[in-house]
Design a protein that fits this description.
Shape: extended
Distance between the termini: 56 Å
Number of strands: 6
Largest sheet: 4 strands, parallel
Strand content: 5-15%
Strand order of the largest sheet: 3-4-5-6
CATH class of the largest domain: Alpha Beta
CATH architecture of the largest domain: 3-Layer(aba) Sandwich
Number of helices: 11
CATH superfamily of the largest domain: Glycogen Phosphorylase B
Helix content: 55-70%
Order of helices and strands: EEHHEHEHHHEHEHHHH
Number of domains: 2
């Protein structure tokens, strides 16, 4: 693919498990759009308007995915089983092409909500009580999404396994896409996996608050530095970049975040008290009462 001018990047996704990731630059394949749209029409009789950028992107992406899967299967051999999982109508072009080219790849198509269902819900219609009565071709046509509807319906019918994420979406797909899903894989979070200790929740809550005030504080310092001295501006900006890098969520462990949280709370409480002290003196107010009042409020916020 790179030999044909397609820009492809391979790396790892920075999440648990670090799975392999392949990224395609759609712009590097844009010159082939007209050819691929002609093939989609000749093979599947789906015509796409010229000015529909979203669908054009889906066509380019789908062709790149099908191309990649074909090359991958050719290199590893046809005996090794491959499963390709496609989500939503935007990925359905790739699934359709895999089946049209008779690649020995098992396919799964999952819809989270049908494209026609989204448009009908946005309109002034009683969607769920009249789902079985809609003329889907007419409804998609008057909303100028018939080509998108055809792509999604083609993906649902061509897939080896068709799934939805809820029973109500399965009911929707059965009437709008004219195919009963093979299964339902519910959306949601694994509450056991993502269960937090109360102290972790406290830490994450105040870490976010500290990051916000840190940015506000350094923005103010940066603006002042720009006015006072250009050389000082670069010093402040470099320090701010370094600090932001060191305190990034991506590279900090939970223990480190807790440490920074406590540190920031102490620093900003001290700065806040200092500011109010200076203001109190300048305005000839009772310094001690102001300090006590502001300290009490901040402590209440931290406890809550």
């Amino acid at each position: 693919m790179r030999a044909r001018g397609i820009e492809v990047m391979f790396g790892r996704w920075l999440i648990e498990g670090s799975p392999n990731v392949i990224l395609f630059d759609l712009g590097s394949a844009w010159s082939m759009l007209d050819q691929w749209k002609a093939e989609l029409w000749s093979e599947c009789h789906i015509s796409v308007p010229k000015d529909d950028t979203e669908t054009n992107n889906a066509i380019v992406f789908g062709n790149l995915v099908a191309w990649f899967l074909g090359e991958y299967q050719h290199q590893i051999g046809r005996d090794l089983p491959i499963i390709a999982h496609f989500h939503e109508w935007l990925a359905a072009v790739g699934l359709i092409l895999v089946k049209q080219r008779k690649l020995r790849i098992a396919s799964i198509f999952t819809t989270h909500a049908t494209i026609l269902g989204r448009y009908l819900c946005a309109g002034n219609v009683d969607f769920y009580n009249n789902m079985q009565h809609f003329d889907v071709d007419y409804e998609a046509g008057i909303r100028k999404i018939y080509h998108r509807y055809c792509i999604e319906r083609g993906g649902a019918h061509k897939a080896d396994i068709f799934t939805t994420v809820s029973h109500i979406t399965a009911y929707e797909a059965e009437h709008l896409l004219k195919k009963r899903p093979d299964g339902v894989t519910p959306n949601g979070l694994n509450v056991i996996q993502f269960r937090y200790d109360c102290r972790d929740c406290f830490c994450l809550r105040y870490w976010g608050r500290c990051q916000f005030w840190l940015i506000v504080f350094f923005d103010c310092v940066y603006v002042c530095a720009c006015v006072i001295d250009p050389f000082l501006r670069h010093r402040v900006f470099s320090f701010y970049q370094c600090l932001a890098q060191c305190t990034s969520f991506k590279i900090c462990t939970l223990k480190t975040r807790k440490l920074f949280t406590i540190l920031y709370e102490a620093i900003f409480m001290g700065i806040w008290i200092l500011i109010w002290t200076i203001l109190s003196i300048s305005l000839r107010l009772d310094v001690m009462s102001t300090i006590i009042r502001e300290s009490t409020c901040l402590l209440k916020v931290c406890i809550v």
